[in-house]
Structure formats: C-alpha cells, structure tokens
Amino acid sequence: MKILKIILTLFVSSTLGMIPIEVFASEGVTPSNLTTTSYGIWAVIVFFAAYSLVIAEEQLHMRKSKPMIVGAGIIWILVALAYISIDKSDQVHGFLNHNLLEFVELFLFLLAAMTFINTMEERHVFDALRGWLVSKGFSLYKIFWVTGLLAFFISPIADNLTTALLMAAVVVAVAGGKDEIAKSEDKVKFVALACINIVVAANAGGAFSPFGDITTLMVWQKGILEFDEFFVLFLPAVVNWLIPAVIMSFFVSKGHPDPVIEKIKVKRGGYFVILLFIFTIAMAVTFHNVLHLPPMLGMMTGLGLLKLFGYYLKITGENDGNVIVNEVHSVGRWDIFSQLERAEWDTLMFFYGVILCVGGLGALGYLGLVSGLMYGDLGATNANILVGILSAIVDNIPVMFAVLTMNPDMSEGQWLLVTLTAGVGGSLLSVGSAAGVALMGQARGIYTFFAHLKWTWAIGLGYAASIMVHMLITPL
Fold this sequence. Notes:
The protein is mainly α.
C-alpha cells in the first residue's frame, strides 16, 4: 500500500511540477500557500482536464498545444485572482517573468535548431541518405541493424523525432511501401520490429547529448550539467539500445527485399548547411561554457548566418529551390522564412503551455508536498528510476521540468541518472516518446501500441541494464 501511495504521489508531483520556494526566491518573491483555496483546487482541475485532452490527442485528432495554451491562460487568471484576494498581486509579475524566461530561452534554441533541420531536409540531405540506403540492396536483417545504428548516432545531433521519422521512411521504402507491406505478414512483422528498434535507438541516442532531446536540453540550459558531462551516459545508452535490439534481431527475417534504385542529389549548398549547423552547435557550447551566456544566443547567431547564406544563394542565381509547406509542393526561390514556418509549432506551443501551467501551479504553492517523500523516503536512486517509468506514461517534458523545478539536492551522478531515465524511459511504451507517437502515424496499422507492447519486456531489460551500467561507472 505504501509503494502504491508513493507511485501515485510521484505521478501527481511529476505532472503538476511542484516548484520549491528557492525557485522563485531568486526572483525576489516567495509563493504563498494557496493550495487549499478554491483558486488552487480549480487550477489543479484545469491542468488535469487540459492534460487529459493531450493524452487523447490521437483519438481526438486535436493538436496537443491547444488545450495546454488555454489551460495555461485559465491557471494564470486563477493565480492572479488568488493573489489579489490576499493583497499580494504585485508578486504575480515576478512569478510569470521567471517562467517566461525559461520558455523563451528554450523556444529560441529549438526554433533555430528546427530551422536548420528543415533547411537540410529542403536541400534533400536526408532524402539523399535515404536513397543511398535503399539502393544498397541490404538484407532485411542488415537494414534492421543499419537503421538502428544510424538512429542512435544521428539523434544526438538531429533530435530523436526527426531521426526516427527519417529511419522509418527508409524501412518502409525498403519493404516496398505501405501497400506492399500490408500484403505480406513477414514484411508487417519486419517493419514493426524495425520501428520499435528505431524508437529505442533514437531515444537512447538522444539521452547522451544536450541536443538529442528536449529534456537533455532543459538540463543543460539550466546549468545542472556541463556539455561534456552528458557523454558519460554514452555506454549506458548503448546498453539500453543493444539489449532489446539483439533480442528482437533473432526474429527478423534474413531475406532480401525487392531491389530499389533510388538516387537523389543533394541540392546546392546542402553540405555547407551541414557544416554551418555543426559550427552553430560549437558556438552554442562556447557561448555557454566560455562566455557564460545562454546557449540559445549561439544558436540564434548561427541562424543569422544561415539567413545570410540564404541571401548568398539568392543573389548567385539559386532558382531550383522547391519549398514544401504544409505538404503542398510549390516551385520558387529558396526562402529561409519558409523553413521557419515549417518548424514544429505545435511542439513549441505545447512547451509554452506546459511551462506556464506548471509555473502557475507552483505560484499557488504546490511545493514541498512530495519532494521529501520522493528524494527522502524513497531515496534519490529509486525516485529517479520511477521518473523514467513515469515518462513512458506521461510526456517526459513535464516530468523532467518537474524534477528541475523541485531541484532536489542530488549529486552529479544522480542528475545524470534522472537525465538517462527520463530520456530512455519513454521507449517502454509507443506513446512514451515523440518518436514513438510519430512512427505510429507514419506506419499506421503496422507499428501500433500493442505491437510495441509485446516487446516492452525486452526494452525493460535494456532499461534496467542501462541503469546498472551507469551505477557501475558513475559514483552516485
């Protein structure tokens, strides 16, 4: 009964994002305890109502940002009314400023990164990679391992969502397209296993890089861990992917798919954009580690350089840029603002809603109710392991934001542990990560929740093994 209570409390605390007094103390204001007031109670109800709609996104076909943005607005109205009722309305602005600063730094960083990825996509960089893989004539068994390996090593740079979509496109193309796959039980099984492998590999690869996942980016920008400290998680991440991959590989067919010849040429400037992206990442790291400036400033500077390169393409006669916006193919000169438009705005706005909702609940005084239970009674190790399991059920963004805002007194090894578990824990279920959800749409009817669930036990073995490896190589 006690452990059930702890798990339930952990779920509530992680989804509400309990914010300690110290978080706002740096802003010169301290939250009042308004948790038992009608404003506090209604704020919790609004949050859970909004988040329930997020969880039901696939069934309702409603983008997840919509309920969260509305919920954030209502919660902050309740915060304002609550503080007016106790004659402390002047404090609300301080609370809001703190949360807006958190959002703006991450928003600008992600916007710049997404624009680079979109530009590389428009220059056919990813299509050329996919075409090269498809034309190699690998066996299904080799494709299983090649796509998993590439997903693991591309996701630390291009993020786990983009990587998973790219590798899944390769798998579907090799198998002959969705119509052909549906006619063969063996191909259905292969695509399902390959998609599971890709999701696990992309999430594991993203866990050891500040750029691989939004949660790792949050930890880095918060200053909890330095850039190079994330790479300590490389070996645990490898183990997390390899164990389920090896198990599943025994069930992958050794046959060869029908040969496909697909050659796609990278558009002019595509390779330079790759180099510019690497240089931009280097700038972000330098700005943070050497100049003690927010990493987003380096990313935005790189975005400015990309804009200048776009101008160079324009004045030197670039006229073959086919821009794809909202899946509509239009012909015209390449335009950097078209790539900005194609950013994952739903994800960015969802992130705004999460931070504002969590911050509003923190301002109402939902603090210290469970941090002692999680990191006191349970201990940091058990709490951090449970955080990973919870991230398979609840999106890992609010889970990690909750941990960061609780800011428990933990060693560097424990912060690395929770970074690992929050990153790879989402692989336990297909709905536990953005990569899994995206692939359920891309390979609809083939890679499903229950197809993934059949292999959760193998993924769980990898999850447990990665934690043990981390404990062996990193002092907690």
